[in-house]
Write a structure and sequence with these properties.
The chain is mainly alpha-helical. The protein contains twelve helices and no strands.
Length: 516
């Protein structure tokens, strides 16, 4: 038997024999030991992807510089898009405000005024015509005839303008259609009234037709015209509110993106200084300055647009609306005076209507025609002593509560003072009529000589026009300034952002070259 050294066999480890047909299930949460298991493949891919991303974007210096450059360019692009959209929206807002919202509201107010003026001139024509032209007051008649034609033409123009503006708004379309139909009926009644008045003995028929025309005006035409004023003014207000909210949100977004972009540029500058042992990178520094300039210009653009929009709507146009209403009410009150003289059967009704319109203009609670003048004088003196002591309401109060511009207060106060003179004239007319001096009352009411009622009414309207013109001029100024801000500031802001992006790329180019 041969024995060989070193050949002693070691015992083999025992391998457990698994039962046939049963799979080994790893414990919950443990990795599947099989190399091709789906969970392992997904895990390996995820790890590999992370490693690739880290190697590409963060593991070495060029990768980190590329990442910071990409973040800078993306943020600059986002700011460019945001400011461009904000600028386009601001331009669209100004086009809408000046080309649609304001003209629609003022056209509706002009329509109301023209309707009142036309009816007032019809009453004046009937008053001044005498008996089929005998005893006619020539100057008042000719002036009334001219004003009547102007008012009729103005109504036609306003109705056409409002019909175009109402397209797409079914409620306003129906209102304009109804106004157009009612105005045609009103014109027919007025034409018949004037025709009857030109024939002998036709005064009674003329007065009956005029009553029907005036009733149609008061019950249908004027309420619908006021509905249009309110509807268009409400739309303007809603769009102003929406535009203001959008501008505020855009301003916050511009500031947030701008601060984030400046932070990324600051981080990039810090990293370059730390890694390359250089104090500052000129390109990145210039890009930071351009970004700061762009953010300042963008915030100035948005805040200035918001301020100009608020000035146009609240400071200027709110006063324009109040003064336009005041003018329309004034013409209606003046028409009530003529109707009072023309129609004895309705004098009490027209006196009450005149007082109601006076209260709409300068409201004095509990005042009557006999006490109105004294109370107006007392409350006005209190206001002149202390501008915060306003003991009256109405459209004049609305204007005096919204004094904003140079010269506006003096013009508004002049309007109230001329209004007080006109009110005293009304009492004189009623006193003359009560004394049986009807001819003198008519001549004083319709005369245009200095010191007569119409002359004082014209002075009142001139004063009202001046304060309205101040607000309209500033409204146009705000709109022009708003457009100027968009065209003047937006290109510079966008140019500064483009320069920031280009300077960042140029500033990093030498650093990338060091790794080639």
């Amino acid at each position: 038997m041969t024995i060989t050294a070193g050949t002693t066999r070691r015992p083999r480890p025992e391998v457990p024999v698994l039962p046939q047909g049963k799979a080994v299930v790893p414990p919950a949460g443990a990795p599947d030991p099989r190399p091709g298991a789906p969970g392992n493949r997904l895990r390996h891919r995820t790890v590999a992807a992370r490693a690739a991303l880290r190697s590409r974007y963060w593991a070495h210096v060029p990768a980190r510089l590329r990442l910071l450059r990409a973040a800078t360019l993306l943020l600059a692009a986002a700011l460019i898009v945001l400011l461009t959209l904000a600028g386009l929206a601001a331009s669209g807002t100004w086009n809408t405000v000046t080309g649609r919202d304001a003209p629609r509201t003022t056209s509706a107010a002009d329509l109301e005024l023209a309707l009142n003026d036309m009816d007032a001139q019809v009453a004046n024509l009937l008053l001044a015509n005498g008996d089929a032209g005998k005893g006619r007051l020539r100057t008042p008649y000719e002036k009334a005839l001219g004003f009547y034609g102007d008012a009729r033409d103005g109504i036609g123009h306003d109705l056409r303008t409002l019909a175009v503006a109402a397209q797409g708004d079914r409620a306003d379309e129906k209102t304009v259609e109804s106004l157009t139909d009612s105005f045609a009926e009103y014109q027919e009644l007025v034409g018949r009234s004037l025709e009857n008045d030109d024939r002998a003995g036709g005064k009674t028929s003329a007065l009956a037709d005029h009553r029907r025309a005036t009733d149609l005006l008061q019950r249908q035409l004027l309420p619908e015209a006021r509905d249009l004023v309110n509807s268009n003014n409400t739309v303007f207000n809603s769009e102003y509110t929406a535009a203001g909210s959008a501008l505020s949100a855009q301003l916050v977004a511009v500031v947030a993106l701008g601060v984030l972009l400046l932070a990324v540029l600051g981080l990039l500058q810090w990293y370059l200084s730390r890694r390359f042992q250089r104090t500052l990178n000129a390109g990145v520094l210039a890009a930071t300055a351009c970004t700061l300039l762009a953010v300042l210009l963008g915030t100035q653009l948005l805040s200035a647009t918001e301020a100009n929009l608020r000035g146009a709507r609240r400071d200027a146009f709110d006063s324009v609306v109040a003064l336009s209403r005041a003018r329309a009410i004034a013409y209606d009150a003046n028409a009530d005076e003529s109707r009072y003289l023309l129609d004895p059967q309705r004098r009490d009704r027209y006196a009450e209507s005149f007082l109601a319109k006076s209260q709409e203009l300068y409201g004095l609670k509990g005042a009557t025609l006999s006490t109105y003048d004294a109370r107006l004088a007392a409350t006005w003196q209190a206001y002149r002593t202390d501008h915060h002591d306003l003991r009256f309401t109405g459209e004049f109060r609305r204007e005096l509560d919204n004094i904003t511009f140079g010269g506006e207060r003096a013009a508004a106060e002049r309007t109230v003072e001329t209004y007080a003179v006109y009110q005293r004239d009304d009492r004189r007319i009623r006193a003359l009529l009560a004394a049986g001096k009807e001819r003198e009352a008519v001549e004083f009411c319709m005369g245009w000589e200095p010191g007569t009622s119409n002359a004082h009414f014209e002075a009142w309207m001139d004063a009202l026009d001046k304060v309205t013109a101040i607000n309209e001029r500033h409204f146009d100024g705000f709109a022009d300034a708003g457009r100027s801000d968009v065209t003047g500031l937006l290109p510079w802001a966008l140019g500064a952002l483009l320069a920031a992006a280009a300077l960042t790329v140029l500033g990093l180019r030498p650093r990338f070259a060091e790794f080639r």
